[in-house]
Amino acid sequence: MQKKRPHTTIMTKGTSVAAAIFLAPAIAMILLYMIYPIIDTFLTSQYDWNGISPDRTFVGLENWSALLKDSAFWSAFQHNLVVMAFSILLQIPIGLMLATFLDATGRRSNLFKVIWFFPYLMSSVAIAFLFSYILATNGGLFSTLNTLLAGKRVVVDLLGKNPSALFAVIGVMAWQFTPFYMVYFIAGYANISTTLYEAAVIDGCNRRQYTFLVAIPMLKPIFKTACTMSMIGSLKYFDMIWNMTQGGPAGGTELMATYMYKLSFQQWKMGYGSAVAAGMFILITAIALLFTKIFVVKEEY
To answer: What are the CA-CA distances from residue 267 to residues 49, 191, 236, 273 (Å)?
Structure first.
């Protein structure tokens, strides 16, 4: 049996030590800012605590028992599911259409690429305030246009009624995040070999046939990743909803994140708010795992 050479063993150990040194900061950051907060959230959920007082009362699983019976939480979860469904149905198809147009037109559409990507560069808080004015009942865009068309004062209250408030916010979310998926699909198109297009043209395919029969089927792995990101992101929306409606009217736009915030930082129920946060983590993880299990894509390149 051939023995290992000493210098090979030394190089292997040196590589392992170097890898450990370079990975140590990243691992420490993950443990400190990701793993520890999750563990601490589950631990805090077992206490009755206002988040400030040094005294905490251990209540065991009482917060979890209350959470399972909390109709407000499950209503917020249902709203999250609605947001998730429409985020996938709106953002990804529109993003794909925009990317397909940009890929087909090439450099001639660089101006469109910049304009369409601009909403994603804006802050969610700034967009929330912008659309709060656009959708306002007094002086808002829709109220003003309807008043001009009708010849009399017409009030369009999209954010003050249910269920229009939730769908109005979903539309604003789609306006902001669709450009991200547009760029994502552009990157997917860029990874498709040009030889496939040349072969399709030789076989008599036009641009439309190439797009639907060759290019888009090649983007299936991109679709899976995009759907997963959209799904996870929509289950933890907070800033835009909070700045536009704060979960109103009458809880019509309440999401799990806004409900958790109200409990923790307005009602000072940090223990129960932690239970809501932990419940969010469990639900989001379960849905993501279920989605990746069901949505199996065979990668062919």
So the answer is: 11, 50, 20, 9
CB–CB of 151/265 below 8 Å? no
| β-strand pairing of 47-48 with 57-58 | antiparallel
DSSP class of residue 205 equals: -
Residue 231, amino acid: M
Note the pLDDT of residue 255: 95
Identify the CA nearest to 254 among candidates 83, 123, 44, 122: 83
Q: What is the pLDDT of residue 43?
A: 95
Tell me which residue of 203, 195, 193, 215 sits closest to 102, measured CA to CA. Answer: 215
Report the amino acid identity of residue 7: H
Degrees, nearest 5: CA angle 95-228-208:
35
Q: Which of 267, 248, 196 is nearest to 49 (CA)?
A: 267
Residues 6 or more apart whose CB falls under 8 angstroms from that of 37 comprise none
Query: What is residue 2's predicted lDDT score, i.e. its pLDDT?
Result: 52
Amino acid at 12: T
List strand residue ranges (DSSP E) for 22-169, in order: 47-48, 57-58
Return d(Cα 256, Cα 236) in angstroms, integer. 7
Amino acid identity for residue 149 in this structure: L
Three-state secondary structure readout of 5-20: CHHHHHHHHHHHHHHH
Q: What is the pLDDT of residue 207?
A: 84
Nearest partner of 295 among 221, 185, 245, 187, judged by Cα:
221
Give the residues across from 57 on adjacent strands.
48
Mean pLDDT, consecutive 10-residue stretches, the chain (301 aa), reads: 54 79 93 94 94 90 95 96 95 95 87 91 93 89 88 87 93 95 93 87 86 89 91 90 92 95 94 96 92 72 46
